[in-house]
Amino acid sequence: MKILVMSDTHGDAQVIQHVRTLHSDVDAVFHCGDSELTSDHEVLKGIHIVQGNCDWGEAFPEEKVIEVEGSRIYITHGHLFNVKNTLMPLKYRAEEKNADVVLFGHSHLLGAEMDNGVLFLNPGSLKQPRGRNEKSYAIIQRKSDNWQVQFYSDEGILLEDINL
């Protein structure tokens, strides 16, 4: 399984298209909210996307569970779970959803960690990064006994390669 994860693109349809073009070989594409695009925007076709705090209306759901090659992936923006301060509410929700992977955004800080066998991942922001200078997104691959998480810059340059 290989998936592309992005978040917090804040109206930049071109960067979404650019990143999708760089990684056209993925099994699924996820956007963790704050796209600030309409639900019928061409660039969002085929993307699993959720509502962020800067997305207006009710076009996108607040959360989703998608199964990809036997892995249950839970996606939410994070603002409803106070992710800028703690991951505990999100961890409880992941447990309720029986998730193997949790994808979220909102803080614009990239990061990945395993907690009780669950991968938690924030791809950072492709528009307004925080914590480091590079705009970022992630590629996740399921290996036989672990997860490979690769963070890339908006230009497709590898920033970090982590095995969890």
TrEMBL record:
The prosthetic group or cofactor this protein requires is:
a divalent metal cation
Similarity comment: family membership: Belongs to the metallophosphoesterase superfamily. YfcE family.
NCBIfam families per UniProt: yfcE
- InterPro entries cross-referenced by the UniProt entry: Calcineurin-like_PHP_lpxH (IPR024654), Metallo-depent_PP-like (IPR029052), MPP_YfcE (IPR041802), PdiEstase_YfcE_CS (IPR020935), Phosphodiesterase_MJ0936/Vps29 (IPR000979)
- Originating organism: Chungangia koreensis
Entry-linked PANTHER family = VACUOLAR SORTING PROTEIN VPS29
Domain of life (superkingdom): Bacteria
Q: What is this protein called?
A: Phosphoesterase
E.C. number(s) listed in UniProt? 3.1.4.-
Q: Where is the Calcineurin-like phosphoesterase domain?
A: 1-143
What keywords are annotated for this sequence in UniProt? Hydrolase, Metal-binding
